[in-house]
Amino acid sequence: MRYLVPVLALALTCLATTRAEDFPGVRGLMSPDEYEASGLDKLSEAERKALDAWLLRYTARDAETLRSTSKDVREAEQEARIEARVRAPFDGWSGDTLFYLDNGQVWQQRLEGRFAYEGGERDVILDKNFFGFWRLTHAATGRKVGVKRIR
């Protein structure tokens, strides 16, 4: 059950950005270690497909309700918040900017927009917006831009 809440939150994000036939299924939503630790690797192919079909239906129909009514889901979303620092130099964003973070992650701007910045502050916060899409907030200015993780 511990893994179900993050999987459902991630599934909602995936649904918002993919077509139904691109749904990655439970195996694609979990790390290999999570998949094995949950025991899902013991399912037959037919059982896994049934679980994937249920997860797709659940995510499309009911997950948003759970996001707004479940304390556990809200806490899991808060845990998804990432605080990091953009590697130097940081001069804002300009349309398709790549953000190389000090934690090794790489994020790409996914929404139009420009923000020119000449200060030295490089701290950023990554979190999900109301619709489940990731956004990057420049901590010093509060400026936000939609992003997607590429590494």
What's the gist of this structure?
The chain has helices at 4-17, 25-29, 32-37, 45-61, 63-69, 71-79; strands spanning 82-85, 92-93, 98-100, 106-109, 115-116, 123-128, 134-138, 144-149.
What are the salient characteristics of this protein?
single chain; alpha+beta; six-stranded antiparallel β-sheet; two-stranded antiparallel sheet; 8 strands; 21% strand; elongated; disordered N terminus
Folded structure, characterized:
This protein has 151 residues and is α+β, with helices and mostly antiparallel strands. 38% of the residues lie in helices and 21% in strands. The protein has six helices and eight strands, in the order H-H-H-H-H-H-E-E-E-E-E-E-E-E. The strands form two sheets. It has a six-stranded antiparallel sheet. A hairpin with a 5-residue loop joins strand 7 and strand 8. Helix 1 crosses helix 4. The longest helix has 17 residues.
